[in-house]
Design a protein that fits this description.
Arc Repressor Mutant, subunit A, 363 residues, alpha+beta, Alpha-Beta Plaits, five-stranded mixed β-sheet, single chain, 3 domains, 14 helices, four-stranded antiparallel β-sheet
Amino acid sequence: MNKSKLQRLQQLVGAPVEVRVIPRTEWEQAGGSKHPETGDCLERADSSWLLAKADGSEFKVIDIRAKLTPLERELLGWALKPVNAKPQAGASDSERQARKLGDWIEQCIAAGDVRAEVPNQFELRNRLFDGMIPFLLQNEQADDREPSYAELEKVFRSFISDDMFLVPLREREWLVLGSDRLLAEVDSPEEDAPEQDETKEVLYSLATGLHQMFTEEWGGECHVAVGMPIIPTESLVQTVSTLRETVYLGRRFHIGMQVHLPWMVHLERLLSGIPESTRARFMEEMMGRPDLFTEPETITTLDAFFAMDCNVSETAKKLFIHRNTLLYRLDKLKQETGLDVRSFNDAVLVRIMLLLYKVTKRK
């Protein structure tokens, strides 16, 4: 708020007015909501605070040294509400509520409150039922046009179902919630697989289909993460945070992959938290040949070997090579590094080295 507007506001309320930046903790200690919205008013002993902006751990407030009447609070709060340019004219109530929910999720993540539950004040709680499958979709468009909410909702409904729910998050990032009934509608490639493994296979198939549908419709680089069914009212913020981290880890450690699964990046999550200096020292100690992972054939072979759970026969099939050819490559790797990936301990070390190399790109 510029100086002239502050002066005008001071004249209207007949009291001193100033803009202050306070910690989120000070707002909460004064009795303010843990997840406030722009325009919210907090009455204090001798003043009124109007929230102008919530930015992570800091709040920008308009400090009015006077008590406001209910009408003044309502009018000033309305004036401070941001004008959301994203919803087009004639946006549905569902879209407005979805964007409001998306803003609330972002506030919770910024504040580190990932375990927050959806407040009862949201009118769309009746659309958040138990057992919803969360998909997080991020897109980097080839052009500057972002698909409208109505366009996305129409296409997603045709792919998922009419009871899906779309929540816009950051720019070109959306949360898509579908019923867990989808799990029964997709045939699993292994009917006798354990229930959890079968569920993960189906979720991967659904995410792959969603990715293909989006890229065919709008193009650009698209990444999709999917999680196990959730109870949205209880774990929506935690789910978005986890799926967002999953996409980040997938893009960082597995370049070229567009569909990412939280249960497939446990090791990557651990390695990502290790200080850079520790990672570099480990690579220096382990690398007998600095140029080992610069050879495309070696990387391709190891990626396939680990993807096939270190099964020699299945890896050879995946690479379309003879089993003896694969054994020759693995023996060569053992001679050059002293590590035999057919041994569990050595396989773990090589797996870690390969992942770290993809991050550090050591030459």
